[in-house]
Write a structure and sequence with these properties.
heterodimer; A: 487 residues; 24 strands; 25% helix; B: 364 residues; alpha/beta; 8-stranded parallel beta sheet; 21% helix; 37% strand; globular
């Protein structure tokens, strides 16, 4: 049995990160360091209005007074925020290409290598399913596909910098209303220096005709990516949004501190899916992305619904709690998560469900998989305020341990202040059983495939929430990340 | 930092011989360390600052020292050491069984060291139900191989009572402890229970009930450390909050790296009976071994409507039906108290808190 396990551990070590290449483009990068001038420089480069610069400066001044959160179950050397460059853009983007056809072919090649469809024709020909994509390379958005078709439906889907220029009134109305500029250390940092990200606006009663997607890529060395995404769904509208991310394989740690804000008005529904595959570092924990992200959705109107689905396989350190503020009566929040930590990866992730409105419902399904020396923590909060008559929550968090050097942890907070609330929380910890494996192998299934099957079965509740093409990708990603492990 | 002058004044008011240098040293350590602030994760929901506002006369440090030798681990431990004036030491000899429960003298501040030698058996009843406004009970309990301990901790003090209790238990090979802890009263109560399952085969069974009422605040923190393979832990806590009361439960189970074949289960159930009441619960798992069985579950809810309907259809007034169902909810924990006098007392006190429960007095 033990030799068996060693073989498997050896297989696990051979995991490869296929997105780890570097694109050789000339970049215009601000020198490392952060001060008010850098904030002003970013704002000037993006030709931003005065109010946005004010927003950034307020955030920067607040950030100076804040200290890094230390409560998460992760360990890393102190980050030197002055050693990070806060803005980097490929030089070719300076002339502002009008459409994707004018974009530097090297950049397009990058996305082709990553398997991101940017050619509308190919998609229309049925080679790929139809997804509108906004691609963000370091600090700028390279381009957005299917804009015309979306515009016909009244949907706005563009980079946030473009939205600031084209739709300032919408951005101003909603930016910072879900995650205030001083919300936490990383959100304040992001509010001060955010560069690009996506803006989505679905007008009243519109069902977005296709999946929207943003693909984030960190390329330049010593830079951080600070993207900001804002999605607003007006009354009765519906949108499904996907997000993917990768970065080159490097020995230094790179910082990624994003803020995502979702606003759902009456009867609106937002489905937000993430497949996070930032470079996780090598098996000795060298390199990898520090992923410190604030994601929050505000179910502002009655009967609105926000659903988060995340597959977290990358990053050296993950600090991420996509949350729902269930403000409207009868609003619904959902959180489905698969998080995988391997080698020396550490993840502290989970959600917050804040029940404010009457008869609000939330569902949390979290599946954590720890392998190698990975440390995995679920940290969640369910808070029921006194006015949340009839609130309902169901939480399930399961951990799967592969090997005896990893760790799986659960920190579920519950704060209940209404007698009519009903909550259930359940957590289990298990490993892949020898008997399960033996059974599969006796049926002629290779060990590696059997493990993959079992892990996929473990994650099924979450994968079934992903849009189809993403679910397939997630499954593949998981089996690559975990090749052949047993506990 | 909070002004802790009241503690010093209370100490200085002791007669000269009681103010020994060892006790003074402990007091100074407490004053230097201070009361833990709510910034600390462990104290997130419990604010001890009301203690500093108590008048010196309410603090009641013991005039007579309990024993020699004072060692302490942190500020609160030092406070208990200073006010109790040393520990009472008790040792149960190997392979002896003590039938009569150990009931320590009723002092406001108690500090105990209990050592059960190999194969010894005993029952300990810790009661902090006195009238004092501020009482602290700290106990260090050591179980050698194969020892067995039954421990009942009871707190049904009055509405103005402030209580700090901490029990540290260390279990050697195949030792077994059954613990029942009940909090029914008090203004502010914090109970820490730390269990070290240090050697293979050790087992802990933990049953807890917290039912704060009025303006009461009850905080139960349990920490079970599975340090060795083949240990078992079972934990069941039930909370009932009414009026403006607040209940806090934090249950940490940590499975250390080599603690394979750990078998651990934690169940928490809560009832909130009034709109102003609040319960904050956090069942935590930290697991560093892969061949383990660990599960925890937590529920929050109200009394079952169908059960209520059934009882009412049998002629019980609604309030009595509610009291009966609340009692059965608590009974899941109380049934594990084997001393009839203690169980009866707790049950009576619980029922007194429930309206129209006179008809249930016969239950017990």
């Amino acid at each position: 049995m033990s030799t068996n396990q060693e073989d498997i551990q050896a297989l696990v070590r051979n995991r490869t990160y296929s997105a780890g290449f570097v694109t050789d483009v000339d970049s215009e990068t601000l020198p490392p360091g952060l001060n008010e001038d850098v904030v002003r420089a970013i704002s000037a480069r993006k030709q931003e209005p005065e109010w946005l610069l004010e927003f950034r400066l307020k955030a920067y001044r607040r950030w100076l007074k804040m200290s890094e959160p230390k409560w998460a179950h992760v360990h890393y050397p102190p980050i030197d925020y002055q050693a990070v460059s806060y803005y980097s853009a490929p030089k070719s983007m300076k002339d502002a290409p009008k459409s994707l056809d004018e974009v530097d072919p090297k950049l397009l090649e990058t996305y082709k290598k990553l398997g991101i469809p940017l050619k509308e024709q190919e998609m229309l020909a049925g080679v790929q399913p139809q997804v509108a994509v906004d691609v963000v390379f370091d600090s700028v958005s390279v381009g957005t596909t299917f804009r015309k078709k979306l515009a016909e439906a009244g949907v706005i889907f563009c980079s946030i910098s473009e939205a600031v220029r084209e739709h300032p009134e919408l951005v101003r109305k909603y930016l910072g209303t879900v995650v205030p500029f001083g919300d936490n250390f990383y959100a304040a940092l992001n509010s001060a220096v955010f560069t690009d990200g996506s803006f989505v606006f679905i007008p009243r009663g519109v069902r977005c005709p296709m999946e929207l997607s943003t693909y984030f890529r960190i390329n330049e060395r010593n830079t951080g990516q600070f993207e900001r995404t804002l999605i607003v769904a007006e009354e009765g509208s519906h949108v499904s949004y996907l997000e993917g991310c990768t970065a080159p394989q490097r020995d230094e740690n790179q910082l990624h501190a994003a803020v995502v804000e979702l606003v759902a008005l009456d009867d609106a529904e937002i489905k937000y899916s993430t497949v996070q595959n930032w470079y996780p570092g090598d098996e000795n924990g060298v390199g990898g992305i520090y992923n410190f992200v604030t994601k929050r959705g505000d179910c502002r109107g009655p009967r609105s619904k926000i659903s988060w689905t995340q597959v977290e396989t990358g990053s050296a350190i993950t600090w991420k709690y996509p949350s729902c503020i269930l403000r409207g009566d009868d609003s619904v929040g959902e959180f489905y998560s698969v998080a995988l930590t391997h080698h020396r990866q550490q993840a502290d992730t989970g959600t917050k469900m804040i029940h404010i409105g009457k008869r609000t419902k939330s569902t949390i399904v979290s599946k954590g998989i720890a392998a190698g020396h990975g440390q995995q923590a679920y940290r969640g909060l369910v808070r029921v305020l006194p006015g949340a008559e009839g609130a309902r929550n169901y939480t399930q968090c399961d951990s799967l341990l592969i090997g005896d050097k990893c760790g799986a942890h659960t920190f579920p907070y519950t704060e209940i202040r209404n007698p009519s609330a009903i909550l259930e929380h359940e957590a289990t910890t298990s490993k892949i059983g020898e008997d399960q494996l033996f059974y599969a192998r006796s049926r002629g299934i290779a060990e590696e495939d059997a493990v993959s099957m079992i892990v996929n079965g473990f994650c099924k509740d979450v994968f079934k929430e992903l849009p189809m093409e993403f679910a397939v990708e997630a499954q593949k990603l998981l089996s690559v990340s975990l090749e052949g492990s047993v506990g | 930092m909070l002004d802790l002058a009241t503690f010093r004044s209370a100490f200085e008011a002791l007669p000269e011989p009681a103010r020994s240098s060892a006790r003074r040293k402990a007091l100074d350590a407490f004053l230097a360390g201070g009361l833990p602030s709510t910034d600390l994760e462990e104290w997130k929901y419990t604010d001890l600052s009301p203690l500093a506002a108590l008048p010196p006369a309410a603090l009641l440090p013991e005039a007579e020292a309990a024993g020699e030798g004072i060692g302490f681990t942190d500020a609160l431990d030092a406070l208990n050491a200073a006010f109790a004036g040393g520990s009472t030491e008790l040792r149960i000899a190997a392979d002896t069984r003590r039938d009569e429960p150990i009931r320590p003298a009723d002092r406001a501040h108690q500090r105990h060291r209990l050592h059960l030698e190999r194969g010894a058996e005993a029952t300990l009843i810790l009661n902090t139900s006195g009238d004092g406004a501020f009482e602290t009970v700290f106990a260090d309990i050591r179980l050698d191989a194969g020892a067995r301990l039954n421990l009942v901790r009871l707190n049904d003090a009055g509405a103005d009572a402030h209580r700090l209790t901490r029990i540290n238990m260390h279990l050697a090979r195949d030792a077994c402890a059954n613990v029942v802890t009940v909090d029914l009263g008090g203004r502010l109560s914090r109970h820490d229970l730390n269990v070290d399952l240090a050697e293979p085969g050790a087992a802990i069974h933990l049953h807890g009930l917290y039912a704060p009422a009025g303006e009461g605040h009850v905080d139960n923190h349990t920490r079970i450390e599975h340090r060795a393979p083949h240990c078992t832990s079972r934990e069941q806590y039930r909370g009932i909050a009414r009026d403006k009361a607040r209940g806090v439960f934090n249950g940490m189970i940590r499975v250390h790296k080599d603690a394979q074949k750990t078998d651990s289960e934690q169940r928490i159930a809560n009832l909130i009976l009034s709109p102003g009441a609040e319960i904050n619960a956090k069942p935590e798992l930290e697991i560093y071994a892969d061949d383990v069985k660990c599960a925890h579950g937590a529920t929050f809810g109200q009394l079952d409507d169908e059960a209520l309907f059934y009882l009412r259809s049998r002629g019980l007034p609604e309030s009595t039906a509610r009291a009966l169902l609340t009692w059965t909810f608590a009974h899941e924990v109380l049934q594990h108290i084997h001393q009839e006098d203690v169980r009866g007392r707790v049950t009576r006190r619980l029922l007194r808190q429930l309206p129209n429960s006179e008809q249930l007095e016969a239950l017990q």
